[in-house]
């Protein structure tokens, strides 16, 4: 036990020491290089705003919360979702601190079990030999408890844990990881099966996300089969490419860029299809374009220099891309290369008559109406009329927020996270009572093969 702890400690220290150098090589963001690195102060390595997941980081634990938002734990901090800064874990889970100083979380998972309502949607955290169970953001009565009491047969000082509900596993199961030891714990019978996951690296964190199982190790991850531990496809992959919104780092081949953008689970910022049926999808600092069956990916900076990155909404109109970012509109004539129109960017208020920020916008072919989505409200803007007069068209009731939308021959495509939905028309999108079929962005829209 002590050996494992010492090893873990050494690993954590060596990683925290290695982080700043990889930061400088791979991720030369303006200004950040000038920040002092407190390398000598090992105890501070887990603290403060210095934690930058885009610098490459090994997580202690990963789990989704009740709303399905991924939480990445590192030391006494926590990253919520795919971008943003670290917060202290004790701000969200105060009681984790009550019993002993919260240095780190070893493992975490969110139980999913329709059969046992007493556990369904509970979040479990493992710290040394203790387990904490949260339900609806509150620590449950009687917790923390010893791991051996709640999960008999499961060792202390875990590295990772992930739920495997039916039908993924035969019975509702939790998969626990410690070093290269794997345990399947049956939630109902409490039976423990020791497994060998031969082709899997040792995981420091694991989670189930949108029906797939991911093991995090170093700053990479592998997708695995929770029953056999088999890893299919080209793994490991870089976590920053798929689960974090980070700007360009390291040199990669064009094929790698395309695959990364096709297969990323990070939400899109904007999507549009032009009159010729080409699709442009924007995410963070990158975009992916699809013309026929040809894929192209590059940085936004290289093809849309004036815009730099991180666009809010894009729509196509008469051979131009209207790109909305904060309170401005950039307009590019589509071509090789795309050319920015003179006089732009212009204020959004002037171009569409709407105050930013907006969340999505689209124009359907042969129409001259821009449908602009802001929160749950859709505005119509007639692009043939100046000055522009937005008219409130209606509200989206089926979703709280949408990430991106486009209109094509099939209708309106609405993108939320890694899923999309198709409506025959904007009208049906607002009035529809029946939830349309859910599709996967990475696989069905972008043709990712895994
Ligand atoms: C949260 O953790 C930080 C650092 O570990 C500590 O300084 C702070 O007192 C804790 N806050 C609470 C409310 O426990
Ligand atoms: C599933 O649970 C049943 C009893 O509820 C048990 O007989 C069976 O062995 C379990 N299957 C696995 C794969 O653990
Ligand atoms: C995985 O964990 C085992 C201990 O359980 C250890 O012996 C082995 O070296 C670890 N492998 C790697 C690659 O760290």
Task: Catalogue the unreliable spans.
Answer: 1-48
Q: Give the number of helices.
A: 9
CATH class of the largest domain: Mainly Beta
Number of domains: 2
The CA-CA distance between the termini, in Å, is 37 Å
Fraction in helix: 10-25%
Report the mean per-residue pLDDT as an integer: 83
* CATH architecture level-2 label of the largest domain: 4 Propeller
Which features would summarize this protein structure in a list?
450 residues; alpha+beta; five-stranded antiparallel beta sheet; 34% strand; disordered N terminus; binds 2-acetamido-2-deoxy-beta-D-glucopyranose; heme; iron; disulfide bond; heme transmembrane transporter activity; Hemopexin
Textual characterization of the structure:
It is a single chain. The chain is of the alpha+beta class and 450 residues long. It has nine helices and 34 strands. The protein has two domains: 23-241, Hemopexin (4 Propeller); 257-445, Hemopexin, CATH 2.110.10.10. Strands 5, 6, 7, 8 and 9 form a five-stranded antiparallel beta sheet that branches. Strands 22, 23, 24, 25 and 26 form a five-stranded antiparallel beta sheet that branches. It has a four-stranded antiparallel beta sheet with strand order 1-2-3-4. A hairpin with a 2-residue loop joins strand 6 (123-127) and strand 7. The protein binds 2-acetamido-2-deoxy-beta-D-glucopyranose (3 copies). Heme binds at residue 296. Residues 21-49 are annotated as: Disordered. This is Hemopexin.
């Amino acid at each position: 036990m002590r050996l494992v702890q010492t090893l873990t400690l050494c690993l954590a220290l060596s990683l925290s020491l290695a982080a700043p150098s990889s930061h400088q090589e791979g991720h030369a963001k303006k200004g950040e290089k000038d920040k002092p690195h407190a390398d000598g102060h090992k105890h501070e390595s887990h603290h403060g705003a210095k934690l930058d997941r885009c610098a490459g980081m090994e997580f202690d634990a990963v789990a989704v919360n009740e709303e399905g938002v991924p939480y990445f734990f590192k030391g006494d901090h926590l990253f919520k979702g795919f971008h943003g800064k670290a917060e202290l874990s004790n701000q969200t889970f105060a009681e984790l601190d009550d019993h002993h100083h919260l240095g780190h979380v070893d493992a975490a998972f969110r139980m999913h079990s329709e059969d046992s309502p007493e556990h369904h949607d509970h979040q479990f955290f493992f710290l040394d030999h203790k387990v904490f169970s949260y339900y609806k953001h509150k620590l449950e009565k009687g917790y923390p408890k010893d791991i051996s009491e709640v999960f008999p047969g499961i060792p202390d000082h875990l590295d990772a844990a992930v739920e495997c509900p039916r039908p993924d596993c035969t019975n509702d199961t939790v998969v626990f990881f410690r070093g290269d030891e794997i345990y399947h714990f049956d939630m109902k019978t409490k039976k423990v099966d020791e497994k060998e996951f031969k082709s899997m690296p040792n995981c420091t964190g694991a989670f189930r996300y949108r029906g797939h199982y991911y093991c995090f190790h170093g700053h990479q991850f592998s997708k695995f089969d929770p029953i056999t531990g088999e890893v299919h496809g080209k793994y490991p992959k870089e976590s920053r490419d798929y689960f974090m919104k980070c700007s360009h780092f390291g040199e990669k081949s064009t094929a790698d860029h395309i695959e990364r953008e096709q297969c990323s689970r990070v939400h899109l910022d904007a999507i549009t299809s032009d009159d010729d049926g080409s699709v442009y999808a924007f995410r963070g600092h990158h975009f992916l374009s699809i013309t026929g069956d040809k894929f192209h990916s590059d940085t936004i900076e290289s093809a849309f220099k004036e815009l730099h990155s991180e666009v809010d909404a894009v729509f196509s109109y008469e051979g131009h891309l209207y790109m909305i970012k904060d309170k401005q509109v950039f307009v590019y004539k589509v071509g090789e290369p795309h050319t920015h129109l003179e006089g732009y960017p212009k204020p959004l208020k002037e171009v569409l008559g709407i105050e930013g920020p907006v969340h999505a916008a689209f124009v359907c072919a042969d129409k001259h109406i821009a449908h602009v989505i802001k929160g749950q409200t859709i505005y119509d803007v007639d692009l043939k009329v100046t000055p522009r007069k937005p008219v409130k068209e209606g509200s989206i009731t089926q979703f709280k927020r949408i990430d991106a939308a486009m209109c094509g021959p099939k209708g309106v495509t609405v993108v939320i996270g890694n899923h999309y939905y198709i409506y025959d028309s904007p009208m049906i999108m607002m009035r529809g009572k029946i939830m349309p079929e859910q599709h996967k962005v990475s696989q069905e829209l972008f043709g990712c093969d895994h």
